[in-house]
Specification:
With 188 residues, the chain is of the alpha/beta class. It is built from seven helices and four strands. Strand 1, helix 2 and strand 2 form a beta-alpha-beta unit.
């Protein structure tokens, strides 16, 4: 069974949760991994660049968190995807980093709001990771420079991030709550 939704549309997200409820009798884990990254200096960022990232990265996360906070079964797990750019704050990442900093804030707040339900809420903040989202449009010299920033001197791989998410979603992550796990090879 698969279901998908435009996360920027609250009604579509609600329908997606309805589908999961019907198919599985409820939802135990939410992984908020929808995201877009459009880079430009703040001076060169137009409304379309700003609005699209707010719609997906921030409002989309809000929409799924709202539904999860109403519907997740006791003992559930919520894992949001942030970015180490929320701490690195490199030029041209202003709008993107702002959306991810807001995701981290909502993570902390929701962890407190779900008190008494035994639901953990955490975020994983990847550093440079060899994904289409990261690699698209970057010259090789930029990619090579970013590889060298982390003490491990490589880009992260999707499996590195998946392992962090899996840890937080599983039983070993049950005492971790309201935290941001920076899966970035030590870049920050």
């Amino acid at each position: 069974m698969t279901a998908q939704a435009d996360v920027s549309d609250g009604t579509a997200v609600s329908r997606m949760f309805d589908t999961a409820d019907a198919a599985f009798g409820g939802v135990d884990v939410l992984v908020n991994n929808a995201g877009i990254m459009r880079l430009a200096t703040l001076a060169d960022s137009d409304d379309a660049l700003f609005d699209s990232q707010i719609a997906v990265n921030l409002k989309g996360t809000f929409n799924t968190l709202r539904e999860a906070s109403r519907r997740l079964r006791k003992g559930g797990r919520i894992i949001n995807l942030s970015s180490s750019q929320a701490g690195l704050l490199h030029p041209t990442y202003g709008v993107y980093a702002a959306t991810k900093a807001a995701v981290e804030a909502m993570t902390s707040v929701l962890a407190k709001e779900l008190r008494g339900r035994n639901i953990t809420v955490n975020a994983v903040a990847p550093g440079p990771t060899a994904t289409k989202l990261f690699l698209d449009g970057k010259p090789q010299e930029v990619i090579d420079r970013l590889k060298q920033l982390a003490p491990l001197e490589r880009l992260g791989e999707p499996v590195d991030i998946a392992a962090a998410v899996s840890f937080l979603a599983g039983p070993d992550g049950g005492w971790i709550n309201g935290q941001v796990l920076r899966a970035n090879g030590g870049i920050i």
